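Dear colleagues,

For the upcoming journal club I promised to circulate an example of a predicted protein-ligand complex. I picked one with zinc ion because it came up in last month's discussion. The inputs are reproduced below in full, followed by the predicted structure.
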Amino acid sequence: MSVRVERAIAAPEASRANWKPSAATRGLDRRLAPERVAGKAQLAIAREMQAVAMVKERADFEMVADGVYWLERAGVNCYLIRADDKLVLVDAGLPRTWTHLVSALRSFGATPADLDGVVLTHGHFDHVGMCERLAREHRVPIHVHPRDQELARHPYRYPHEASRLLYPVRYPKSIPILAGMAAGGALRIKGVDALPDVEPGVSLPVAGGLTPMWSPGHTRGHCGFHLGKMGILFSGDALVTLDPYTGRRGPRVVARAATADSTKALTMLDVYAATRATLVLPGHGAPYHGDVREAVEAARAAGVD
Ligand SMILES: [Zn+2]
Ligand SMILES: [Zn+2]
């Protein structure tokens, strides 16, 4: 059963009335107004940019499986697991995912200080957004694979196969997503000292066993997390259903703009297929309800952008 908690239910008018595009998106909106730019590509960009203003505020959180909550902001996901008297966050989204996290925790009488830990799929900026605050204000331990520890400290310094600059021009659908990420605080994320103790194959005592699945390619230390008892795979950015750099949807690996080794990324999907999970919860995009082997097949068919 899926329970959607709409903010609008509590205060429908207030919720709509309070929503405004951020100063950043308003500024960009003006600069990119169609009448102010010429050329087909720029017009496409302007239209996509204006779509930012129409993105409705979605629910703060949604339960996607028993005790598993999906928190999403600007296409960036993280997940809260509540089981066995433990509260664990898989990835830490953007700084402004904070309100979603607090809402979810409050719904069962908890606060950020009650979190037992954060496990990171990898150290990219859009997955460590709340880490520094959680560690500093609430002493929540952050865990990562040793090969991504340095990246978690410097979350913007990462190898990638292609320049990020050309993607918004080539893929205008990415612009509202990237602008939404910026509005969510993606441009000023602080790194964090994470414990390098995520060991592939060694289960953490959460919900009957949360097992790290090393899946390098997107980053060197990327790990998925398999909740075997529930048939759930937290796939991080090794297998997503929305690529922020192209705006393309459906199972896929993330574009070369943010991937260290896309050939390896495609090969390593075998690790995920072997879990035979039936619910895939990605780092970007909607949950994939179905056999992970089919998602892997679709990702390979989609190729790399
Ligand atoms: Zn990433
Ligand atoms: Zn990401």
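Two points we might discuss: Residues 61-302 form a domain with the Metallo-beta-lactamase; Chain A fold (CATH 3.60.15.10). The longest strand covers residues 76-83.

See you all on Thursday,
B. R.
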